[in-house]
Queue: 3 jobs
Job 1
Amino acid sequence: MRVEVYYNLHKEMFSVRALEGANKGRVIKHTNEIALEDVKFVVRESGRQKVLEEKRKNVHAFVRGTWVDDVEFETNGLATYNPYRYSTFVNKETQEPVHEAKAVLMLNYPTPEIIY
């Protein structure tokens, strides 16, 4: 199933929103761990600009992909996003933009991490 996943600041875990099926557009799960394949890292620029203007966060950045039970891949690093510092997701170590990945594992132990 194709989904969008974002970190929910209120629940302090990931929210999973369906992109297809009967629940399209709705959050269908909250979780501390999820694996995705065929991934795109998406930042809606208009939402980012609103954050910069209002200094108040909103859901405008997410990881989009196919939800799978388990994923095997060679790790390229950790991805991160901060609307005040970057206009895209970036590699946490190199700060190089990250737009897509074959697979990711999103973990919330003890803080949110996106391993790609």
Job 2
Amino acid sequence: MTPLHLIGQFVRERMGAIPLTVVRGLFIALPVVILIWVLSLPREETTPPENTPESNGRRGWTSNLKFGAALALILQIIIYALWA
């Protein structure tokens, strides 16, 4: 066996020792943390400036990208919680 085989076997054994409930919790916790971060972003960071082609003259809830991102993350959290 080469040293790389020994390192790989060591890592595999350590990863196999982690309980799956912990892995599932971390798998669900990551999108939750990202959701909290997205919701805490200031409105100025998630909407295009007033007089740019990106704004397209739109104002209102559709121009704020937080809502779409939050919806996608909530759906992802639900799916992971039910089927992970």
Job 3
Amino acid sequence: MAGVTAGFVEEIFFRGFFMTELAGAGFGKTAQVTISSILFGLVHSAWGLTSGMFTMQMIGSAVIGTAAFGVFCSIAYLVSRRSLMPVIIGHAAIHFVIEPWLFMVAITMTQVH
């Protein structure tokens, strides 16, 4: 449930709000995709940094992977004429598949420490 909710909220903020604000400030589509995706990736480093359970290499990989996913979502958002529905559904589906594995890793890392 957390993954589905997070996907919904993240898409509303990073695509619906943030990309719209960038467009309103005069940024082109390439800049909107790039800036929102980098921010999206960086925000996802917070859990690893605050938990202290992950190495900088793992956090860096997660940021890069999440930023790449952000590029995909941003392009899908633009292609769909700024409709949030396709990216919310896609993001929720990805979380539905990935989230159980992320929780398992977190639990395993907690037990190791």
